[in-house]
């Protein structure tokens, strides 16, 4: 696969010629499903682009996402990309000292969070613009975008996300991931699994994991697959979906498979 256009433009082009299968299906803890077609997904990206632009988000800004798995997560990711801003993929399971290290290291310009994550973030984001996600609305609830000091780090050219992981060295590490990293990984995965349009991938792991973004977001969007988002790792819920939904791929980790 040769992709010469920016990743976000390639995704949008794929969505514009999507076909009849849903882009995503989201099942909440009660078992209720939300079906998202290509028109709704494209519209949500554009809505977020408008809200983010109005809030002052622009090229080169670092914006952590404190958002749980949902179909709006990738819409936010691509909306930030459209503006040239860089999503910072923060694992919501990180402890306070790890979040402190991330905030002091990347010095975010703003952040986006679910309302219930405000308490988790606490005072770490004092003075920083916080946008709360309420479905299609991004509400500014505190802070403002501050001038970035000349000494503050900037993402390298071509970076479309900063992905933090923890390697047991006492602090989290941030990797700047470019378009080629996502495209090559999704392309290699597809050459191995050979999915066809209309197949369904089950997303269990948090989307702030690069593995989930590649296997359950990028690959499906690049190949016209449906992503089924299960907002639970309860074994009964997983088995119910596997038994009653036409799932073609489950990308997971050993701990979940053992469970």
**What is the count of β-strands?**
12
- What structural class do you assign from the helix and strand content? alpha/beta
Over the alpha carbons, how many angstroms does the gyration radius reach? 18 Å
Q: Largest sheet, if any?
A: 7 strands, mixed
Q: Please, what is the average pLDDT? A: 87
As residue ranges, the low-confidence spans are none
H-E order: HEEHEHEHEHEEEEHEHEHEH
The proportion of residues in beta strands is 15-25%
Structural write-up:
This protein has 259 residues and is an alpha/beta fold. The chain is 38% helix and 23% strand. It has nine helices and twelve strands. The strands form two sheets. The protein has a seven-stranded mixed beta sheet, with helices on both faces. Strands 2-1-11-10-12 form a five-stranded mixed beta sheet, with helices on both faces. It is globular. The mean pLDDT is 87.
SSE layout:
Layout: H1 7-16, E1 24-27, E2 33-36, H2 38-55, E3 62-66, H3 72-82, E4 86-89, H4 96-106, E5 110-113, H5 118-121, E6 129-134, E7 137-142, E8 159-166, E9 172-178, H6 179-193, E10 200-203, H7 210-223, E11 226-230, H8 235-244, E12 249-251, H9 254-258
Parallel strand pairs: 1-11, 3-4, 3-5, 4-8, 5-6, 10-11, 10-12
Antiparallel strand pairs: 1-2, 6-7, 8-9
């Amino acid at each position: 696969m040769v992709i010469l256009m920016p990743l976000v433009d390639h995704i949008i082009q794929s969505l514009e010629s999507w076909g009849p299968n849903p882009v995503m299906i989201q099942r909440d803890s009660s078992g209720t499903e939300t079906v998202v077609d290509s028109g709704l997904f494209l519209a949500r990206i554009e809505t977020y682009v408008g809200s983010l632009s109005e809030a002052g988000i622009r090229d080169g800004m670092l914006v952590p996402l404190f958002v749980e798995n949902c179909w709006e997560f990738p819409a936010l990711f691509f909306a930030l990309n459209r503006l040239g801003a860089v999503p910072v993929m923060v694992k919501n399971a990180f402890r306070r000292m790890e979040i402190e290290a991330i905030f002091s290291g990347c010095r975010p310009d703003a952040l986006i969070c679910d309302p219930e994550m405000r308490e988790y973030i606490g005072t770490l984001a004092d003075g920083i613009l916080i946008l709360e996600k309420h479905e299609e609305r991004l509400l500014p609830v505190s802070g403002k975008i501050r001038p970035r000091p000349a000494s503050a780090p900037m993402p390298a050219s071509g970076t479309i996300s900063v992905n933090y992981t923890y390697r047991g060295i006492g602090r989290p590490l941030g990797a700047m991931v470019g378009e080629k990293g996502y495209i090559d990984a999704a392309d290699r995965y597809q050459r191995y699994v050979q999915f066809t349009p209309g197949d369904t991938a089950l997303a269990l792991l948090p989307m702030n994991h690069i593995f989930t973004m590649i296997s359950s977001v990028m690959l499906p969007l690049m190949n016209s697959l449906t992503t089924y988002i299960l907002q639970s790792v309860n074994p009964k819920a997983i088995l119910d979906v596997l038994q009653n939904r036409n799932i073609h791929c489950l990308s997971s980790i050993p701990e979940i498979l053992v469970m």
